[in-house]
Amino acid sequence: MTQTLLSINNLYKSHAAPNHNSAWWNLRKTSYISAINGLDISVKRGETLCVVGESGCGKSTLARLVMGLEKPDAGTISYQGEIISGLSDKARMPYRRRMQMVFQDPYTALNPRHTVLHALVDPLLYHQPNLHRQHAVDQAMAQLLAVGIEPALAQRFPHQLSGGQRQRVNIARALMVEPEFIVADEPLSALDVSIQAQILNLLAQLQSQQQLTYLIFSHNLAAVEHMADRVAVMYDGQVCEIASREQLFSQPQHPYTKALLAASPQIYTPPNKHHRLVGDVPNRIPLRHVQHGCSLQDRCPQAFETCRHQTPQLTPLTAQHAVACHHTQPPVSQGNSHDSEH
Amino acid sequence: MNAAQYHGHHIWRRFRRQQLWLQLKANKVALISSVILLLLTVTALLAPWLSPFDPADLQQQNIMDAELPPAWHEQGDSRFLLGTDGLGRDILSSLMHGIRTSLWVGFWAVLLQLTLGTALGLCAGYFGGWMDRLVMRLADFQLTFSSLMLAILVLAITRAAMGAHDYHVWSPWLLILVLGLADWPQYARTLRASVLAEKHKDYVAAAQVLGYRSRHIMVMQILPNTLSPLLVIATLQVAHVILAEAALSFLGIGMPYGNPSLGGMMGSGFEYMLSGLWWIALIPGVALVLLLLSINLVADWLRDALDPKNIGQQQ
User: ∠B280-B281-B287 over CA atoms, to 5°?
Assistant: First the structure.
């Protein structure tokens, strides 16, 4: 019986665009870049959900929203049925120990002034002030062994470690408070290819040992194919396709997914020239008008009239597979009231 | 590995004592000036025990000893190595106590500046928004006043309001308070800039994800990474405060008469300058230059030694 651990409903988030003319006395309206546009996704307990997408599609923003580092503009994030988005820092404390994050850049994710041991012992003592220091040190050493760091490295500073070792320490730190849910934002992208495999195997091994649930953001399709149970494809702050790993890689439905898979280099099969997007990533600063319809409409070779007017909704094809594309579903007659005016 | 070992080792490493020492040995100017600074500090600390006379003790003063030149002069007296002032006080003893006063005022005033500037700069940088704007506008406002002018104003008014006796009791503290409160914007601005650079790094996000409170993140995570520029400003400010104290005492509104300070000694010696009694003003002046120069040179070296690029090369 799979239970939903995390569910995100109709989430919106935009960032203020950098405006070089702005000053505190300048009351002109700030322009916004929309990062997340009505995103729906849910993570089941014990699974590994990988979210893939190109740079700037909102992956990191989503990770930060889930962890409560930013607050959404609209929509909700619930954890085991409890809404956690918009909680105050204090009210969020119980969830801090249950969900932890592994960061993209292992070089800046560790405080340069703290030793490895300090980085691991600190969270434990912070959450359990009555814990004996010796006990915390023992636990930290055990955790270091679990992620494959020699005890001799415990007194090192981050700059004395290699990238792979640092990422292991990052993972160890996240696991120190015994979370059940791990969000990893591009955990491999800053690492050498040879190290990537080690970290992937470490994540898989820790998952089976400690019954962890993973939400992994990546643009590395090979890594995703290796470890995901389900894969969600993100484009322009929305999920455009979500499916089990086998289905997504063997029968991609959305034109963007097809193009993404075709673009990843393959050793044996020649690149599929049929699935190629035209044009460029759309400008995400809406200056004068809001674009209606599918966000891929200008790049999609199959775009037709409906795509210009109606935003496709994520619609299940099978129990395991949902796509947001007008080609895989009949166009919705009423659509959004917002869109149908045009 | 046990907990005590972990803790001791951590503190040992954090100060990078060994590395600083190696860099100090390689830099002769810094080495000499830090030795001079160390000597002056030790002299100042031990002044009550080292000085041949007590400048505050009227019993030890004799008007017959007044205006004696230094001992190496043909009219000098071997009891008074650096001569005496117009009231017959031993200049060497006054000098030792004067350096003590200067360093004492410098230390406490800078500690006050550092605390205030660090707290405000940290909050401004970390919280941003209205807090940032408020603190930075306050800093701009504060910087439009010369700290010396502010000190003259406050000290002159309190002197008039308190009366001479109370003022003499309280003036060292007032001096520290005024000089300490006047110069916080430098620290706040520097720290705010460093905090803005640090707070977007992932280790801060990791600390937030772990549920640390803002105060803990600011003080335990961000502050240690922004300390080096603060340390340099603080060292330079010690020199600045000592100079300000000397200037105020020279003008007669700093340290009270019975409490010798370098500026006060120069001020009282200034009257005798034209009658050929050069040592009364010149000797404290030379001591002040020596003190300020050594502090500035040490601060200069400290800035280079704590430069992250420099540290990166060393390790």
Answer: 105
Using the structure block, give the residue that is written with the tokens 């569910």.
A7
Residues linked to residue A315 through DSSP beta bridges, in sequence order: A323
B210:A126 CB<8 A: yes
Q: Kindly provide the ipTM of the predicted complex, given to two decimals.
A: 0.83
- Burial class of residue A235, CB neighbours in 10 A (0-12, 13-18, 19+): buried
- The pLDDT of residue A336 is 45
Secondary structure, 3-state, chain A:
CCCEEEEEEEEEEEEECCCCCCCCCCCCCCCEEEEEEEEEEEEECCCEEEEECCCCCCHHHHHHHHCCCCCCCEEEEEECCEECCCCCHHHHHHHHCCEEEECCCCCCCCCCCCCHHHHHHHHHHHHCCCCCHHHHHHHHHHHHHHCCCCHHHHHCCHHHCCHHHHHHHHHHHHHHCCCCEEEEECCCCCCCHHHHHHHHHHHHHHHHHHCCEEEEEECCHHHHHHHCCEEEEEECCEEEEEEEHHHHHHCCCCHHHHHHHHHCCCCCCCCCCCCCCCCCCCCCCCCCCCCCCCCCCCCCCCCCHHHHHCCCCCEEEECCEEECCCCCCCCCCCCCHHHHCC
Question: Would you state the structure tokens that stand for residue A274, as one six-digit string?
Answer: 């049929």
User: Residue A312: what pLDDT?
Assistant: 85
Q: Which of A113, A115, A149, A215 to mutate to test the interface with B (most CBs of B within 10 A)?
A: A113
pLDDT at B239 over 70: yes
- What residues in B contact A118, CB-CB < 8 Å? 6, 10
The number of residues making up chain B comes to: 315
Query: Quick one: which of A13, A133, A144 has its CA closest to A73?
Result: A13
* Residue pLDDT, tens place only, B46-70: 878 877 777 777 777 777 777 777 7
Taking CA atoms, what residue in B is nearest to A152? B1
Top pLDDT among A127 and A2 is at: A127
Q: Which domains does chain B have, with CATH numbers?
A: 81-314 (1.10.3720.10)
In whole angstroms, what is the distance from residue B163 CA to residue B188 CA?
A: 35
* pLDDT at B153 (0 to 100): 87
Cα A341 to the center of its chain, rounded Å: 34
Return the DSSP state at B279: H
The Cβ of residue A203 has, within 10 Å, a number of other Cβ atoms equal to 22
* DSSP H or E segment with residue B95: helix B91-127
Predicted TM-score of the model (pTM): 0.77
Query: What are B75-133's pLDDT values in tens digits?
Result: 767 777 777 776 777 888 888 888 888 888 888 999 999 999 999 999 999 998 899 99
CB of A79 within 8 Å of any CB in chain B? no
For position A30, what pLDDT does the model report?
67
More confident of the two residues A339 and A165: A165
What tokens were used for B135? Answer: 């603190």
Which pLDDT value is given to residue B251?
Answer: 82
Region for residue B98 given its phi and psi (left: phi exceeds 0; alpha: psi -120 to 50; beta: otherwise): alpha
CB contact under 8 A, A126 and B9: no
CA angle, residues A182, A183, A184, in degrees to nearest 5: 110
Q: From the CB of residue B121, how many other CB atoms can be counted at a distance below 10 Å?
A: 28
Give me the residue label for tokens 């035209």: A278
DSSP class of residue B90?
A: B
Task: Name the residue facing A112 among B133, B211, B225 (closest C-beta).
Answer: B225
User: Which backbone phi and psi does A94 adopt, to 5 degrees?
Assistant: -60, -30
pLDDT digits (tens, 9 = 90+) for A182-229: 999 988 888 888 888 888 999 999 999 989 999 999 888 888 988 899
